[in-house]
Design a protein that fits this description.
Elements: H1 11-25, H2 27-32, E1 40-44, H3 51-61, E2 65-68, H4 77-93, E3 98-102, H5 119-133, E4 141-147, H6 155-158, E5 165-168, H7 174-185, E6 191-192, H8 196-202, H9 208-220, E7 227-228, H10 230-243, H11 251-271, E8 277-279, H12 288-295, H13 307-314, H14 327-348, H15 356-371, H16 379-385, H17 393-420, H18 422-435, E9 437-439, H19 440-449
Parallel strand pairs: 1-4, 1-5, 2-3, 3-4, 6-7
Antiparallel strand pairs: 8-9
Amino acid sequence: MSAFERIAGYEKEKNELRGLAEIFNNRKKYELKGATLPKGIIFYGEPGTGKTLFAEVLATESCLKKITIDLSDTESGTTICAKIRKAFFKGARGHVPVMIFFDELDKLLPNRSEEYYSDRSKSILTQLLTLIDGMGASNNVVFVATCNDYEDLPESLVRPGRFDKKIGLGLPDLYSRRKILELYVNASPARFALSCESIAKLSSGFSCAALKTLVNECLLRSDSTNVVSEELIRQKLREIKEEDLPTERSVASYTIDAVRNVAAFLLARSYSNSNYLLTTEDGRVCNSFLDRVISGADDGDDYDEEYEEREQYRDGTKEVSDDLFSKNDYLAAIMALLGGMAAEELLFGKLYDNLEPGLRAIDKLLNTMANHGFLGLHLLSSTCRFPEYKIPDALINELHAIYQKTVEECYEKAKSSVEKNKGLIEHLANALIRKKSMEKEECEALIAEGGGIAV
């Protein structure tokens, strides 16, 4: 059995793989023509699309001895660089063609802009560039890597002459889903009530790994006669769609979320010094007081204006209570959420598609402010007391104009604060990318180290 048969579907990508195998198996022919063999190959795409399998098949079909660089996120840069050097030196000393394999390369390297990186990631990149550049044209070594987010790899690494071949693996199309399902279904004695073609049509958006999970779940729940009913198949399809199977987030995703939340956190921290946990979770400003303001929006409580008592809630000396939120508390929460968006625009030059939780939270805050008369109109509570009352269009338009003006004013203030604290945002975001979450004591130390929050 050819190793290529382990790959179901993906005919175009598989043909590219066959072409590479043909080159490596006939290297002398191409060297006599004066051609240079590829030094670097990268397989990229979403998790679960078979990148590692493609690399394994290439090694088998090309008779390449595979040397895997076994890495851990917890290891130091010095240890990782030593392992990389050892793999390259071992490959260079051998008398047979070698594939040096580096899985999930993007996890350990700086992002493309190289604005967010650790000393470890920079040293790993430098070591790789040195070793790849040192590979001779007739060298028996080929460097093969996989990554989830190719676009975010450092440009210095992926330029021609280092990675000569790039193969993208997207989610399988209908044909590929059918072939993948056939591979796993036909390997079992069980009988499926639906054809692989029918299941493929019902599993749009599934990765290769999700399709394998689907078949396995059906086999585990098949009846005593090895029959997989249509009801069971549809049930497992629903479960996998709804389950949100855990996948590794890319470095780029963590970077964007870290920058957004750090900026929101710093604005919130300027307003309230309550307890907090700095994370990359959506729709939060990582401040217990303002997060409570956000989560309590639109709950219909009464509001107390007593300033001194409210200050005790803000600084964390008392447990926060919904009935003490003021207009300024709501405006501070809106500014913090907008600060995250302003930071994305400032540091990346654009906004990403991660804004929905924050925008939804801002909308709730504005509705609650209007409901309690903080915006000069008191419309929403009137409609609650008198459901038959229809708000005139003119008043709705007036309210929307107030919303827009409030958001614009808050955004300008947030943007100004973000610009003043750009260096501190980068400093904290870099730490958050590595740690994924940080408690108050650690954050305060980093803020002090970064020179404090500019006001």
